[in-house]
Amino acid sequence: MAILKSRLSHLESRDDTGFSSNASGRFIHKDGTPNVRRAGLSNPLQKYSWYHTMLDLPSWKFILLLITGYIIANIFFALLYYAIGIEHLTGIDESTPFNEFTDVFFFSSQTFTTVGYGRIAPVGFLASMLATFEAFLGLLGFAIATGLFYGRFSRPRAYLKFSKIALIVPFEGSSALMFRMAPFKNNLLTDAQVILTCAIEDADEKGELKSKFFTLRTQINKINTLSLNWTVVHKIDESSPFFELTKENFETMDVEIFAHIRAFDEVFSNTVVQRTSYSSHHKEIIFAQKFNMMYAPSKGQKKTILNLDLIDSYTPYSI
Questions:
Q1: Cβ-based neighbours of 166, under 8 Å, separated by 6 or more
Q2: What's residue 253's pLDDT?
């Protein structure tokens, strides 16, 4: 570690990353979200922006949440109609308890959606007020759901797939750190830029372990069009914090690399951002020979085929 301390003392560390040198654990998750848990508010719900939460949910969770909420709301109102008394609902089939409950439940769903087929109708002040309130909540709920659907569909995203690993490979008589990305949808990204930062845990003058942050220079930090995969290359030379570090150093050190990608989406006419990270502690930085090619010409030589399944494919290091 003496080599590391000597190397880092000659490099200028960064203080503008937004992270603390005393922070613990991983700084950024693989999905780009910061590894931070907020505490200290009297009301725990204040920590959440429900709009952001609903927009960030995976599609299947979002749809499942809407369906579950819809069913629970109708069961709740059906129980309220039972509490008032189903004799205040005309047209209920009371032949069996099951038919009775399903009639009340479907009347609630018809009221909630303002369909109102007419076979069942409320009678009396309480039942009519409850039906009026349910119809109001139904209109409000569908308006909110429509806004969330629009927000999710209209939200600009980069839709980039990153390699799960970063490689340290032989490069131009030395070595280089490489990872790659590729767009996985039919969006067109232009003016793509990458900012690469690393965090290295090192002992300070008092012997306490603290993280230091350094900018990693890349061979190409901007490309005009991101249509195929982009392999980001950081050459490990005298100006790199990884200079003279061995495989054993990476296995014992705690190194994390942050990748920040910014590009312009031509369809949305807006800037999109995506992040990821690679951690030596989680075995995501590997010594290897090279990444394998992930695109090839089509059979008719008229198109280029980009195989996204090969984004993590690499040739192992051979001595």
A1: 177, 178, 179, 257, 278, 284, 285, 286
A2: 82
CATH 3.40.640.10 fits 46-154, yes or no: no
pLDDT at 3: 47
Query: Which residues are within 8 A (CB) of 224 and not within 5 positions of it... i.e. 6 or more apart?
Result: 190, 191
Grade residue 111 by pLDDT with cuts at 50, 70 and 90.
Answer: very high
pLDDT digits (tens, 9 = 90+) for 244-294: 888 888 888 889 999 999 999 998 899 999 999 999 988 999 999 999 999
Give the domain ranges of the chain. 2-30+164-316, 46-154
**pLDDT, mean over the chain:** 88
Average pLDDT, stretch 45-57? 87
For residue 127, give the nearest of 73, 80, 76, 72 by alpha carbon.
80
Tell which CATH architecture fits domain 2-30+164-316. Answer: Sandwich (2.60)
- 174-220 residue pLDDT tens: 999 999 999 999 889 999 999 999 988 776 666 667 788 899 999 99
